[in-house]
C-alpha cells in the first residue's frame, strides 16, 4: 500500500488505567455527563496508576493534582480527571510525576494514585477522560464499545479529521 498524503490522520487514545468502561453520560456529575467540557468516556478504575493515553505534551496540572491536561500530536486536548470531588483532597492520594511542558510518550506513568485513600475520601473514583476541544468540530470522535479497560491495550477514543 502506498502512502497517501491526503489520507485523514487518526489519533488513538488508549485507556490510562485498568477498569470498567462506562459512557460519559453515566458519570454522576453534570459537568461531565452533560458533556459541558467536551466529548469523552469514563473508567471506573480497578487498580493501577494513571498513564499517558497518547504521545504529546503536558499542558495543565491541577494544583490539587487530581487532573492533568495533555495536548496530543494533531492538536487534540485530553483531560484526565481522577475521581469526582477530588479537589477537596488537596493533593493527598496523588503523586504527579510530570510537569507542565513535559513531552510524554504513550504509556508513560503520569500520576501515582492511592485508591484506598481516594475511595474513602472522595465522592467517586470514576475517571472521566474528556476531549476538551471537541466543540471545535474539526474532528470526529469514535467512542469504544468495549466494557473492559486494559491499560496500554484498549483504545477508548479514536479521533479522526473530518
UniProtKB/TrEMBL annotation:
Gene3D superfamilies: Glucose Permease (Domain IIA)
Main location: cytoplasm
Subcellular location: Cytoplasm
Domain PTS EIIA type-1: 29-133
InterPro entries recorded: Dup_hybrid_motif, PTS_EIIA_1_perm, PTS_EIIA_component
Pfam families found in the cross-reference section: PTS_EIIA_1
Top-rank taxon, per record: Bacteria
Keyword Kinase: yes
Keywords recorded for this protein, A-Z: Kinase, Phosphotransferase system, Sugar transport, Transferase, Transport
Keyword Kinase: yes
NCBIfam families reported in the protein's UniProt record: PTBA (TIGR00830)
PANTHER family: PTS SYSTEM GLUCOSE-SPECIFIC EIIA COMPONENT
Protein name per the record: PTS glucose transporter subunit IIA
Originating species: Neobacillus pocheonensis
Top-level taxonomy: Bacteria, Bacillati, Bacillota, Bacilli, Bacillales
Amino acid at each position: 500500500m502506498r502512502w497517501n498524503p491526503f489520507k485523514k490522520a487518526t489519533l488513538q487514545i488508549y485507556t490510562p488505567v485498568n477498569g470498567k468502561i462506562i459512557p460519559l453520560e453515566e458519570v454522576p456529575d453534570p459537568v461531565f455527563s452533560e458533556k459541558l467540557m467536551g466529548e469523552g468516556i469514563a473508567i471506573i478504575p480497578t487498580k493501577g496508576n494513571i498513564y499517558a493515553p497518547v504521545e504529546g505534551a503536558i499542558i495543565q496540572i491541577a494544583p490539587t493534582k487530581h487532573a492533568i491536561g495533555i495536548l496530543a500530536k494533531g492538536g487534540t486536548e485530553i483531560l484526565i480527571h481522577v475521581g469526582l470531588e477530588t479537589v477537596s483532597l488537596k493533593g493527598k492520594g496523588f503523586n504527579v510525576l510530570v510537569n507542565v511542558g513535559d513531552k510524554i510518550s504513550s504509556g508513560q506513568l503520569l500520576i501515582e494514585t492511592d485508591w484506598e485513600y481516594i475511595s474513602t475520601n472522595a465522592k467517586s473514583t470514576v475517571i472521566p477522560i474528556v476531549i476538551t476541544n471537541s466543540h471545535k468540530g474539526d474532528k470526529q470522535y469514535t467512542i469504544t464499545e468495549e466494557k473492559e479497560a486494559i491499560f496500554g491495550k484498549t483504545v477508548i477514543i479514536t479521533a479522526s479529521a473530518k
